[in-house]
Amino acid sequence: MSAAYPRIVPELPPLRHLAAADVEAAMPPLEERLVLAERTLTALVADAELPAKIGVHPRSPASFGHAMPAYLRGSDPDGADDLLGMKWVVGFPANGVLGLPAISALVLLDDARTGLPTAILDGAPITAARTAAVSGVAIRHFAPRIAGRAPRVALVGAGVQGRSHVPVIGHLLPGAELHIHDRQRERADALVMLARATAGIGLAFAEPSARWAIEEADVVVTAVSFGPERQVMPNEWLAPDALVVAVDYAMMAAAEVARDAALFIVDERGQFLANRDAGSFDGYPDPAATLGEAILAGTPRPLGGRVLVTHLGVGLADVIFGDAILRVAAERGIGTLLPR
After folding, report:
1. What is the CATH number of domain 143-313?
2. Mean pLDDT value across residues 47-71
3. Does an H or E element contain 258, and which?
């Protein structure tokens, strides 16, 4: 009989857990976040594999759980720079009355060559940062040119997404006059105080209605919570050449805004069409392009008319941001190494 030899088990890579504070400590600076967002959008055109969000809907009204897997093929033929991961995001709008966050999320990262998990990250700060950065890419490429005065910006929604957009607006539209509306006036007032202390923001005001904030704005960012009322913002509220960046599906922008826009683009076509088929974008036309397609093609802003950019959020953005955050965390020793 042959002697029995112990099986040699290779050492597994560390599994790092990053809580929300760890994620924020390792978050790349703002300009780098804009670069990561543009990388995400252009990668969606040819180099990425991701399905539309896979969803379930628990009992709580308007609640959801979405799985958002993504794979990015890198340039190394051995797959050394490939990225693989998923975000699991859950929304419970009714949590507000309990004093709990309405949105919570986790980002799972894997080694793309072995499939072994490498990190678990709190997804809330990643979601906020990458969403605002994608909006920033849209603003950088498609905001109208303003001469002789400060840009006027409307921000509808003063929650987590509203807060994350303020520094992006200040960075890309220096001197901006920011008009903020939220259904809860105290949230709008609090964000106004934050905006006044944010680099690049010239003036900030809380407005009593969404329409008051939006009228005459050069750039409109809508980031309201999901609810029963949809498509409440018609063309007549908007300046003729406004850029509208919608991060709240069709909660604010009416279908006529998309139909009549000089340019209507989305972050990822398949996901938009799947959601339109499910009833989230009733009356919306097909988009002219995705943001990534427009960037790669050098599509200019139309000489006249409105631009609507609707971005629903893609898991690839969370994976790309998560990878950048994980690299910083590993270098600085941030987070907790979990036992296998």
Report:
1. 3.40.50.720
2. 92
3. helix 255-260
Burial of 161 (0-12, 13-18, 19+ CB in 10 A): buried
- Residues facing residue 90 across a β-bridge: 65, 104
Can you tell me the distance from the alpha carbon of 74 to that of 43, in angstroms, rounded to the nearest whole number? Answer: 10
Backbone φ/ψ region at 276: left (φ over 0), alpha (ψ -120 to 50), beta: alpha
Q: What are the angstrom distances between the C-alpha of 33 and each of 127, 174, 179, 182?
A: 12, 18, 24, 26
Instruction: State the DSSP H helix or E strand holding residue 161, giving kind and residue range, or none if neither.
Output: helix 160-172
Superfamily of domain 15-126+316-338: ornithine cyclodeaminase, domain 1 (3.30.1780.10)
What mean pLDDT is predicted for residues 116-131?
Answer: 96
Instruction: Looking at 4-55, list the stretches that DSSP marks H as alpha helix, in order from N- to C-terminal side.
Output: 20-25, 30-46
**Beta-bridge partner residues of 309:** 245, 265
Return the domain boundaries, the chain: 15-126+316-338, 143-313
Q: How far, in Å, CA of 246 to CA of 157, rounded? A: 11
